[in-house]
């Protein structure tokens, strides 16, 4: 059954409406940089969303003129006298946030405006669909600070390839939204006033698909993309299909198609009061 939830915990706002969850990072004065409170709250929300079958699409966006300035440098400086890697380490928290977003069992959309820096680029690369405003621009400046873009690297390389990643990680140069489209980082450039219609259309596709099928397809892509094409992988893909096609969801989807009716997971549009 569809649910509506609205929570506001200072720097991160969270709402659920009509099967769509919206997460808004709300630190415009700090260009939405990721600090400890924001990172912990994002992790909490994403982990809860993984347990909510009623949510089909997750939107990640931020307030203000810039999407995200990456990790908060004041927070990063605390690592100077930090002990060896623990669950509370800044590096591990950031790495866990990226991985959790990347593996989320929902379709994800990043809405990007203005500056997208460092960890902000990582968040974008972890999402399934990325819409950017014409003025959006991207940069991974870590080497200029004597740092390395380690925790975002698996997702950036996965999104744009190792060759392009070398260029932009090593030079720390800024590139435009148009270049981001060419690289495969951004899917579409749209002004913010056109985002809602596009999201509605794309989310409509997702909500007519089986929830488990969407989750398994995301997992399938992640697994196959990082596997060698050989006999073992071919056999594994056949096993995955056999496993899914016998599921209750697949049987319902096939039956609904044969009977020319919506599947049970497709909610009828809510009537306006």
Task: Report on the architecture of this protein.
By secondary structure, this protein is an alpha/beta fold. It has two domains: 200 residues, 2-enoyl-CoA Hydratase, Chain A, domain 1 (Alpha-Beta Complex); 50 residues. Helix content is 43%, strand content 16%. The protein has eleven helices and ten strands. Strands 1-2-3-4-5-7-10 form a seven-stranded mixed sheet, sandwiched between helices. Helix 1 packs parallel to helix 3, helix 3 packs parallel to helix 4 and helix 5 crosses helix 6. The chain starts with a strand and ends in a 15-residue tail after the last helix. The C terminus is likely disordered.
Which series of helices and strands comes N to C? EEEHEHHEEHEEHHEHEHHHH
Q: Indicate the structural class.
A: alpha/beta
Give me the CATH superfamily of the largest domain: 2-enoyl-CoA Hydratase, Chain A, domain 1
In helices, the fraction of residues equals: 40-55%
User: Largest sheet at a glance?
Assistant: 7 strands, mixed
Radius of gyration: 20 Å
On the 0 to 100 scale, the average pLDDT is 91
Backbone shape: globular
CATH architecture tag of the largest domain: Alpha-Beta Complex
């Amino acid at each position: 059954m569809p649910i509506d939830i609205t929570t506001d915990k200072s720097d991160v706002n969270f709402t659920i409406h009509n099967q769509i969850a919206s997460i808004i990072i709300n630190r415009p004065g700090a260009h939405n940089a990721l600090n400890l409170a924001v990172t912990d709250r994002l992790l909490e929300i994403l982990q809860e969303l993984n347990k909510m079958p009623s949510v089909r699409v997750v939107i990640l966006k931020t307030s203000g003129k810039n999407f995200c300035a990456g990790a908060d440098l004041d927070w990063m400086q605390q690592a100077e006298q930090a002990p060896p890697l623990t669950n509370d380490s800044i590096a591990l928290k950031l790495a866990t946030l990226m991985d959790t977003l990347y593996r989320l069992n929902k379709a994800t959309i990043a809405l990007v405006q203005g500056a997208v820096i460092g960890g902000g680029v990582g968040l974008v690369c972890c999402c399934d669909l990325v819409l950017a405003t014409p003025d959006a621009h991207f940069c991974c400046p870590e080497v200029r600070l004597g740092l390395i873009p380690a925790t975002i690297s698996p997702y950036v390389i996965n999104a744009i390839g190792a060759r392009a990643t070398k260029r932009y990680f090593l030079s720390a140069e800024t590139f435009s939204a148009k270049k981001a489209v060419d690289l495969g980082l951004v899917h579409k450039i749209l002004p913010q006033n056109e985002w809602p219609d596009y999201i509605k259309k794309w989310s409509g596709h997702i909500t007519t698909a089986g929830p488990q099928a969407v989750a398994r397809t995301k997992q399938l892509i992640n697994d196959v993309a990082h596997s060698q094409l050989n006999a073992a992988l071919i056999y594994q893909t056949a096993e995955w299909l056999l496993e899914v096609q016998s599921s209750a969801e697949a049987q319902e989807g096939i039956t609904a198609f044969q009977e020319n009716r919506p599947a049970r997971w497709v909610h009828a549009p809510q009537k306006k009061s």
